[in-house]
C-alpha cells in the first residue's frame, strides 16, 4: 500500500465531453413534429376565438330580437335561429364552453387518474387490490348510459355537473396506465439507488417517478380533454346539459329539435358539428407530437 | 490455419462503402467510412469494435436491413457478383436465409413468442424450399441435432426455453437451409459465460465441418480472436486493421488492436499486466481529421493528423494484412517493419492489494440461507438460492464473490444491503443484525452500505442531473446543507475523474457515455461515506477498453477511503485484478475460498476450473506466446 495521496486517480480521463449538447426540451420535441404543429396552430386559433369572443361575435348569442329563421348570408353570416339568435355569434361563444370543459374535465380526470394510479402502484397488498378492483369496475360499467342517467336525474344542471359526470366516468383508463407505469418504474435501479441515497417516499415519488411519467400524464390529459369535449357535446345534444348555456352541443340540440334541415338552415346544424370535429382533430394531432416525447424513435422521420 | 484457400473467389466483396445517418434536425453523421473487404468461402471473419464504432450498421448493411434513416451514400456490396443494394427485392428475398442467414443478438426478440419452435423453423423451410412434409421434418430435426438440442423442444414455445437454448435454436435456424454466409451480431452477449463458451465451441466445430463463411460481429476481442481466421477492427466507422488473427496477436499490429488486446490476460499468471486505452472513441458528429484514433494513441505523430492516412498492404505467412496506420507506412507488400510498439500504447492498470486478513472486520456473514418457495397448483417447490454461506468483509480490502448466473451471488448482495431478508443465519454490521432492521433503522444502515449497479444506463434517473444524484446521499446521510453540498459534489466528481466538475454537474445521464455514467454511480455510492460497498458486476456492461479504467477507479477509492468492498462478478480476471480474497459460489454454496492468488494458482474445485476455462484467452488457444518485447512486460507475464 502506498500513501493516500498517490491513490487518488492521477489521470483524469481524456473523455472529451461532447462539444455541443443540443438539449431539446419537451416543447421543442412536440413542435418539431409536423402533425403536432398543425394541431397546435388550430388549437391556438380556437383559443384566440374563445378569448376574443366579445370582439369577434357581432351579436350577443342570447339576443333573440333578430329576425328569426334567416338563411346564411348577408349581415347574419350563418343565418339566425328560429328564436332570432345569430348562429355565427353562438358558434364563437360555443368555443368557450368546449375549451373550458376540455381543460377543467381534463385536469380533474388526470389528477384522479394520477393519484389513484400512484397509490395503487406504490402500495401493494390490500390497498392495491381494492383500487385495482375499482379501476376494473369503472372500466366495465358502460359510460354513456351512466352519464345520461346521472345527468338526467341530477337536481342541478350546468357546466359543473357535466364536468363531474365526465370525471366520474373517465378516470379509470388513465389510472390503470399510470399504475402500470409506476410498477415498471419502481423496480428500476435508479429508484433503488434513491432509496440507498436515503430519500424518503415522497421525494422518490415526486423526483424519481413523476418526472419519468410526464409524457404519459400529458398524453392522458389530452385523451381526457378530447373525451370531455365530446361528452359535453353529446350530453348537450341529448338535451341533458344546461339549457341556458350556449355550447356547440346545445346548438345542435336546438337545431335538431327545430328541424333545421327541413327549413333549409343547414349552417345551424353543420357549423357546430364541424367546429367540434376540427377541435378534436387538433387535439388528436397534438397527441402525435406527445407520442414522440415518450418514444424518441418517433422523433426523427 | 486459415480455413479458406486464398485463391478462392470471395463470396462477399464490400467496396468503398459509405453509410450516413440522415436526420432533419442535425447534420448527417457518417457511420461507415470507406470500408472495403472480402469474405472468402468457408472463412471465419471477426468484426470487432466498441459500441458506436459502426459494426452493427455494417452487419445490417450486408443483410440489406438498414433502418430508414441510414443511407448508403456510395459503395458496392457484391455477393457472388450480384450487388445486393441494387438487385430486385424478390431476388433479395430468395437470397436471404437460403444463402445469407443471420443470428441476432437477442434471440428473445427474434423468435416469435406465439409459435412453437417447430412451426417457426418449418415456416422458414416452406418459404424457400416448398412444402414436402417428410423432407421438411427431417431437415428441421437435423438442424436441431447440429446444435445438440433434443427433438422434444421443437414443440416448445420460446418462453419455455432458457436464454442459451433460444440462442442455440436461433443458430439451428440460421443453419436450416445450409447457407454459404452467416452473419452473427453479438450472438452470445447477455448469456452466461459457461453457456457462451459451449455455444461458441459448437459453432466453431460446425463451421469447420460445414464450411460456411461467418461474419462474427462482437465487442469482445478475446472471444473473436479465439475463433476467427481473420479479424477486422473497426474504429469510428473505419476498418483500421484487417489481418489474420494470429498476426493480429503477434504484437505487431495497429495500435488500437494492441490497446484492445491489453485488456486480456490469464488470471492464473503470477503477475498480470493489464493495459487500457484512456479516453473514448470520437463522437461521429465530429470525427477528427486524419487518424481517428490519434487522440488516444500513445504513438501519435504529427503525420497522424494529415488528412490522408495511408493503408499498408502487407503479406505475411498467414495471409494478407491491411493496416491503416502511418507507423506501417504505405509501402505495399513490404516485409513487416521491425518495430515493436506494445508498451507505448495505452496505460497500464495500477491496482493495490491489501494483505489477506489485514484490516478490521466490518461485516460478518454467518450460516446464511435463503430459500424461495413457489407454489404452482398443488406442487410446492423450494429453491435454495443460498446455502450455509459465511464470510467476512474487512476494512480497505476487496472480497470477490464469483459464480455464474443463478449461483446466488446477487441474492447475497441483496441480503447484505438489507433489500431482502435471509431465511436463516445472520449478517452482522457494527454489532447489528441486518435482517432485523426496519424502516428508519434500515435507512440509517444504508448510510453505511452502498450499492454499485451493473447497468449504468438504468441506475441513474434520466430526468435528474448528475449533481442532484450525488447530492442526495450528502443531504440525507451526511446532513450537509447549502454550499457544503455543492463543494462536496465537486470534490467527489473530481475523485472519480470527472473533471472539471462544472462541466459535469448539470448534465443529464443521457449526455454521458457508459463509462462516465458508471463513474457517476460510483461517485453517488462514495458520497455517503459508506463502510461497505457492494458492487454487482460493475463493469460487465461496459466496453472492453474502459473496463480496466473503472476497475482502477474502484480499487483506488475503496482502498484510500478504507471501504470494505464485496465485488460480485462472473469474471475471474477482473476478480484477480481487484480482489484480495475470492469466494467461489456454485448453486448457492461456497465451493472454494481463499486469497486471490491461492484460489487462482492452486485451484482445487472443478467448478472454479470451469470458470477459469471460460475466460477467453486468445494467446493460449492459439499457442502463441504473447510477444512482449521489453523486459518489464516480459517479466510480468512469466
- Report the β-strand fraction of chain A as a percent range: under 5%
- The run of helices and strands of chain A is HHHHHHHHHHHHH
* CA-atom Rg of chain B in angstroms: 26 Å
- Helix count of chain B, per DSSP? 22
Radius of gyration of chain A: 26 Å
> What integer is the average pLDDT of chain B?
84
What's the multimeric state? Answer: heterodimer
Low-confidence stretches of chain B: 1-6, 332-341, 625-638
**Low-confidence runs of chain A:** 1-21
Distance between the termini of chain A: 56 Å
Structural class of chain B: alpha/beta
**How many helix segments of chain A?**
13
Output the structural class of chain A.
Answer: mainly alpha
- What is the percentage of strand-forming residues of chain B? 15-25%
Approximate shape of chain A: elongated
Read across the widest sheet of chain B, the strand sequence of neighbours is 6-7-8-3-9-10-13-12
Distance between the termini of chain B: 27 Å
Count of DSSP strands of chain B: 24
The main sheet of chain A comes to: none
Would you mind describing this structure in some detail?
The complex is a heterodimer of chains A (301) and B (638). With 301 residues, chain A is mostly helical. Chain A contains 13 helices and no strands. Chain A is elongated and about 75 Å long. The N terminus of chain A is likely disordered. In chain B, helix 4 packs across helix 5, helix 5 packs across helix 6 and helix 13 crosses helix 14. Chain B has 22 helices and 24 strands. An 8-stranded mixed sheet of chain B has the order 6-7-8-3-9-10-13-12, sandwiched between helices. A 6-stranded mixed sheet of chain B has the order 20-21-22-17-23-24, sandwiched between helices. A 4-stranded antiparallel sheet of chain B has the order 2-1-4-5, covered by helices on one side. With 638 residues, chain B is an alpha/beta fold. Classes of the chains: A mainly alpha (301), B alpha/beta (638).
Structure, briefly:
Chain A is an all-alpha fold. Helix content of chain A is 67%, strand content 0%.
